Amino acid sequence: MKIIIRTFKEHDWTSVSRIYAEGIATGIATFETEVPSWDVWNEKFIKKCRLVAQLNDNVVGFAVVSQVSKRKVYKGVAEVTVYVAQEKRGEGIGKQLLEALVDESEKQGFWTLQAGIFSENIASIELHKKCGFRVVGIREKVGKRDGIWYDNVLMERRSPKFL
């Protein structure tokens, strides 16, 4: 299996939105309950750090970053988002995507990456740890989804290139 990690192109949106919908359906990947429109999604994520994992001609995962604040002091801090198609989870694709996203984010001047992960999403927490993230806190009952309160594990990766 040869996975190609490449830059996201707008025509990938159909596959990316399907993969995102699969993540939403798990109930522990995001507080979102429906896939946004292309315009909303496109506005949310930084255009220079958008990657997809491609197997043959199929997009099987994506990784993107969003700005955590518009304040200048936080220009090098971004939040990561990584999703893998349901049928390809557990095959190392998420790790390849996240490692490539870390590399790309450093090229774009990001010194800190953070992630807020449902405490029940053990696979995602472990993935982030493998890629150099550490737990910096737990945000207890930070949000409700379907009437249930959830905690978020706040994880962070500081780039050694900027220390």
Protein model, in words:
- There is one protein chain.
- This protein has a 7-stranded mixed β-sheet with strand order 1-2-3-4-5-7-6.
- The protein has helices spanning 13-26, 38-44, 93-107, 122-130, and strands at 3-7, 50-55, 58-67, 77-84, 112-118, 134-145, 148-158.
- By secondary structure, it is of the alpha+beta class.
- It has a single domain (3-162), classed as 3-Layer(aba) Sandwich (Aminopeptidase).
- The mean pLDDT is 96.
Number of strands: 7
Report the span from N to C terminus: 37 Å
Radius of gyration: 15 Å
Would you list the SSEs in sequence order as H and E?
Answer: EHHEEEHEHEE
Lateral strand order in the biggest sheet? 1-2-3-4-5-7-6
**Portion in strands:** 35-45%
CATH-scheme architecture: 3-Layer(aba) Sandwich
Give the overall shape: globular
Main pleated sheet: 7 strands, mixed
Kindly provide the name of the CATH class: Alpha Beta
- Fraction in helix: 25-40%
| Structural class category | alpha+beta
Give average pLDDT, whole number. 96
Under CATH, the homologous superfamily reads Gcn5-related N-acetyltransferase (GNAT)
* Named CATH topology: Aminopeptidase
Number of domains: 1
